[in-house]
Amino acid sequence: MNRNSSISLITLFLCFVSLPIFGKTSAVEKEDNSIVQIKSTVQYPNFAEPWRYKHPETRTSYGVVIGENLVLTTAQTVYYQTNIEIQKFGSLKNFSANIVKLDPDLGLAILKVGDSEFSSGLKAVSFPSEVFLPSSGLVIEYQEYRNLSEKKIRSIKLDIDQYTNGYVELPYLEVQSDEKMDGIGELVVEEASRIPQGILIQFKDSSHSGKLIPSFTIKRFIESTEKNAFSYKGFRYRSLVDKTSREFYGVKKEDQGIIVAEIYPGTPASKLLKLEDVIVEAGGYKIDPKGYFDHPKYGKISLAYLFHSGDDLGFKSGKKIPLKIIRAKKMVQVQMELAPFPESAVKIPYGNTRYRIPNYIMLGGIVFQELTEHFLMEQGNQWRARSNKELLYLNDYHRIQKEESEEKVLLLSHVFPIPGNQAYHSLRQLILKSVNSEKVKNLADLQRIVSANQKDFLVLETEDGTQIVFGKEELGKLNEEAMKIFRIAKSTNL
Question: Domain check: are 61 and 210 in the same one?
């Protein structure tokens, strides 16, 4: 099965997989045999040279058994996997596994082992719908020679962030420990009761601190049969802390709130909210000038919790959340549906790669692709200093669509130097504007225009006014020449 087919299958599973739900949460003992080790061979695409893949590498993480032949692990371990093997305590056998569910914002994946022998002797872990805070816990690790060990850890507070470089802010527990941790999917249980508290996904030995995905968020991910388990608020906001600004927007002394600074197209927020609306209350909870509300159990936490993970407060994806807003100095009340993050709202993909493969089209030996932050990051640790400043600006300030659109930033990224395109050898990192005077929205649109072209010539024009001209009949020949000389398998991977 080829790589694209594998990713399509994952998408299919994301939409339709129905995973067993395990009932009453019980304590996890060290001898329960619930922890396994994951070894994944991964091969990342090259986002700057999308016709190539990088060298394979091996990644390891811990896995938690959550059902018959089902294992929970970190998504980063299995991104772009070509092979996944699982080792369990007490067995020398390596078991092959496949991805059946993955959430790039949460940073977790569920694997399924095909071998029925795998589940023998293993006990499934069930995650509860609440956590203990503050609390002392134990980190269960799978060590070399298939031994298990436990280390002490402290859960300090609950917060919310885009902790996997995802698009959606989700809850995490801030944890501390004096011991060394890997932060690669270890199960954490409460020390006294040994009830599961979550999965450790980050830990820095230098600061003795890390981040733990809480059990209630994991439970939601496991039990959801939807492609997207979590909803998204659909807007960005800024603080409203100074008295003059509050007076300007008509905020009364007894109210506070934040101001809507950006609205994502294609979201329920785009139909109900307006820029410079002041949200003073969400879900019946007053919002302070920095965007926090008082959670009845966890204390002050960002309002994003209500929209993204407010199950415990009655705000599940698909339901509506009441909002009180001040618009033009008048109080307005609306009911906003909670819906998933709209991927179509992203004009320039950023953050984690979300398991995407970069697409490209070659025309006359010239490569075109859509701009992503990952393309810029291929320039190394100093990518911000090395990047084309115009592209960097677009990535920083225009990554989100202004209105519902399929438009992307189309880039001339590479020229394979052959005699037939000699006039264009110096071109690089130019934004494509049009083909035969027709505006190009995205890579698929470029392919459509080229395929449908009935003219003798193909004229490609970039934003800076540069024109690239090819005869219709020579495009294929130049592509074949470039592919042969530079050993490129395909002229496009669309």
Answer: yes
φ/ψ (deg, to 5) at 119:
-75, -10
What is residue 343's DSSP assignment?
A: G
> What residue type is assigned to position 385 of the chain?
A
CATH number at residue 326: 2.30.42.10
Q: Tell me, what amino acid is at 329? A: K
Structure tokens at 474: 């020579």
Comparing C-alpha atoms, which of 366, 364, 389 is closest to residue 379?
389
- 33-76 confidence digits (pLDDT tens): 899 999 999 999 999 999 999 999 999 999 999 999 999 999 99
The structure tokens listed for 340 are 């998933």
H or E segment and range at residue 220: helix 215-223
**Do residues 334 and 321 lie in contact, with contact meaning Cβ atoms separated by under 8 Å?**
no
* CATH number of the domain enclosing 129: 2.40.10.120
Instruction: Tell me the residue type at 484.
Output: K
Least confident of 9-18, 99-108, 139-148, 441-450: 9-18
Residue ending a domain, among 190, 223, 256, is 223
pLDDT in tens, 234-253: 999 999 999 999 999 999 98
What pTM did the predictor assign? 0.91
Kindly calculate the radius of gyration of the chain based on its CA atoms and give it in whole angstroms.
25
Sequence-distant (6+) residues with CB within 8 A of 168 are 105, 162, 230, 232, 308, 341
Hey, what amino acid is at 136? S
Same domain as 260, residue 132: no
pLDDT at 95: 98
Tokens found for residue 286: 């007053």
Structural domain count of the chain: 3
Whether pLDDT at 341 is above 70: yes
Contact (CB, 8 A) for 257 and 280: yes
At residue 331, what are phi and psi to the nearest 5 degrees? -75, 130
With beta carbons less than 8 A apart as the criterion, state whether 366 and 468 touch.
yes
